[in-house]
Structures are given as C-alpha cells and as structure tokens.
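Narrative summary of target 7.
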Amino acid sequence: MKHRHLKILILGALIAPLSACGQLPEQQATIVVVDQDGKPVAGAKVGMGFDIGLAKTEYGTESTTKRAITPANGRVVISGGNASGYSGMSARKEGYYDAHHVFQAKSRVSGRWEPWNPEIKLVLKEKRNPVAMYGFRIGPGVGKLRALEFPAASPRGPAGFDLFKRDWVAPHGTGAVSDVVLEYAEPDGPAGGGVLRMCFPNPGDGVIGPLANEGGAGLRSGHEAPADGFKPEISFPGMTRRQKPTPDAIDMRGCWYVLRLRTRLDEKGNVLSAHIGKHYGLIEVGGGTNWMPCDLWGLCYYLNPDPHSRNLECDPTKNLFTDLDKGNWPTEP
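Modeled conformation, tokenized:
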C-alpha cells in the first residue's frame, strides 16, 4: 500500500504513548485473501501499514508498510509496532481488482493492541469483461457539477429523472423518460435527516439493495446483475448539508445497488430487454429549508448500454457520457 494513502487515513489520530522501554505497542493481524467465490488466492501481494509515530508531516505521522506473499491457503500473518492502532491493508494480484481495508484497534493492553491477531478478509475479484458504460456522479468536491436542484415547480417532488440524459424530465429539464421518480420528505425536526423515496414507474424496472461490499473489493459490485428480485421502489435515509446522518443511516461508503431500467416485457411478463446499471452509495438530498434550496446530490451511477447484457463490470477509463467534466466521472470499476 502506498505510504501516502495510509498517512491520509490516520490524519488527526491521537498517538498512543510509548511503553516504558520506548517500544511501540505491537499489532498483529491474519489477512486472508480470497476470490469472488471465497476460494483462497495464492501469490497475492499483501501490505499492512503501521503508524510509527514520528514527527508529524503534512499528511499526518510517519508510517511504514510490511509486505507478504500469500501461500496456497491465502493466509498471511503480519505484525509490527503501531503508535495509533490504525492500520491500512491491501491485496493485489495481476488479473484481479485490488482490495483495501482499514482496521482500527479498540484498546491497548500490556504493550499490544486488542483485539490481537484478528482475521481480516480481503476479496480479490477477477477482471473478466470490463466494458464502457454511462457513468455519472455528483457530490461535494467532485467535479464542476456538484448538485442538482429539485425543479422549482415541485421543490420536493415527485419529479421524474432521466438517468441517460442526467436531467429532470420535461418541462423541468431535458429528460425524456422518467427512469425514476423522486420525492423528498423534509426533516421532521432538528435531529431528522429527511427521506428520499425513489419509484420505478416502468413495469419490470426496479432496484436490488443495499448490498454490502465484503472484503474491501475494488470491484464493489458483482460481475453480473441477477435475473430477478427487483423491487419497484426504495427509500434512502437523507441528511441535510448541515446535519450528520441519522444513527440508522446506511453506510454510504461501501453499499451498492443494482438497477434495471427501460425493461420490455412479453405478454407473459418475461424480460425481453432491459438496461442494467448500478449505484454506489446512498442517493442523498441536502437543504430543503426556507434558506437553502432542495438539492439532489450523492449520485454515483453506471448504466450498461447493451439492453441484452447483465454485465456490471465497468471500465472507468471509458465513459459513454462524452460531455462530462472529468471530476464527474465515477472512478471505481
């Protein structure tokens, strides 16, 4: 793992005092590397970073990384002195997407970090068939476009949104098809974060999720979308721009969703064609008060252009939205 990445992760961490003999508290972990099917991966390069607690730099404290190569069972044990109990871990192998995980120890007992020697799973998913997709993201600090304001005529919806046009449907925007209809219920009190309701009006369309990204896989989604199991609506716990997420909010850093859009069904309800896509993280709304507009933000979605494919593996270097600022391109596969 790159030193810079670990330094950013531990920026601002409180540095635990050294023991009487001047040694850093020991930290140890067993890292288990498996593939998307749960089978051990041999020959993977594994790294585990340790904060060595020297003079602070621009990015935090100094760090060092210990490395190992996985044997046939995919398991390696790595240990070292760590001043803060924070550790970044990574695994990589040619032909697979990298995996990353950040671990924080709970306590320091008798010169070592607890829990001692936890088992950390890292999932390396194979690179099979990455394809160019339509990819779009908005949010704080990501490109020129950071939010989309709900139409003035319906500040909290319901309002149709065309995912292929990246805009509200007419007359509020240039969109032609309501792939989804969004409606926002504003916070009901100072501690509330509001709720965003998403409906899929076209028969056969829908969403599956939230789904967890186990093992810090670089390919957060699966390789292929399921053939069924899609539900016609979903609600996202919201947050205003000046409020923290509610305690029961889904962790937006790791979850993902499968989308099915513009589905064509035969007379028996069988799928003839559909555009498959995915969304990474929560879809969020900010504002919605008298002094702040109601904005849609936190979008990060991908759409497969082939209506006869269920492939979810995106090549993020090739975006079919050719008019986007590079900052509004999703960067994950």
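The radius of gyration is 23 Å.
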